[in-house]
Amino acid sequence: MMLDCVIIGGGPAGMNAALVLGRARKNIMLFDEDKPRNSVTHESHGFITRDGIAPAEFKRLAKEDLQKYPSISLKNEKVTGLKKENNIFLIKTSSGNFMQSRKVILATGVKDQLPPIKGLKELYGKSVFHCPFCDGWELQERKLVVVSEMEGITHMVKLLTNWSDDIIVCSNGKQILTGEEKELLASKGIRVLEDEIAYLHGEDGQLQEVVFTNGERIERNGGFVGMKSKQASPLADIIGCKVNENGGIITDEFGRTNIEGLYASGDTSTMPMAQLIFAASDGSKAGIAVVSDLLAEDF
């Protein structure tokens, strides 16, 4: 059987692409390894009508929507191989199955790479987060710390002043801020500490202190972390997708990559601007592009 489209990735981008394609009566298969980026998150925010929803519940409702459309097949399986031959995509799964599809949407997402700071992993997703727009409201008026070893963190610090006027920046022994940036932050009452962090102390996922190797301890009860992300799947690299300086797959406004018939949507292409609502929108646009391109070929 020749499929119209295979979608690889079952996050909001992949699910929304499937919804568009299913409603257009296209025969599609969505592969979901079920290892979401937001697995540590208790609530997702910023998506109208779904603000505060648990990611698992969001996914359950998405699958419920997709089950209304008989041309959509959902597979809880990992895709391990992807290549294009004679304008047809060949897809291989971890169970050794092969299938063919006219189009493919990569919605495989990214993996976050936390700085190797003791105690951070246990706090991440509970009282330390990455996105101010996603979790700033929940940490409003708290004593916040911004932990980052990356240049450009000043923008995040500025954003956080929307929710707190008690912010400390910790660069964990790295010289990441310019003199001008330090002066600007100091003028707003924001301290910059460049000493190395020994560990983050907290209980039940709630940050309490930042402890430095020099023995200094500062009380904090919430925080944000600057971190890098990488593609969660090697498929884009295997098939030859072009990527931008952040590692995101380069696409046009509707998700078309440099490989004809291959599309990318969600975090895998919009890095580092990751938002639930952005990913779903991206998936919708990619789905529309697939329908339009199939029509152009067949009409």
UniProtKB/TrEMBL annotation:
It comes from the Bacteria. Gene3D superfamilies: FAD/NAD(P)-binding domain. The keyword Iron does not apply. Pfam families: Pyr_redox_2 (PF07992). Residues 4-270 form the FAD/NAD(P)-binding domain. Its cofactor is FAD. Keywords: Flavoprotein, Oxidoreductase. Homodimer. This is NAD(P)/FAD-dependent oxidoreductase. It comes from Cytobacillus stercorigallinarum.
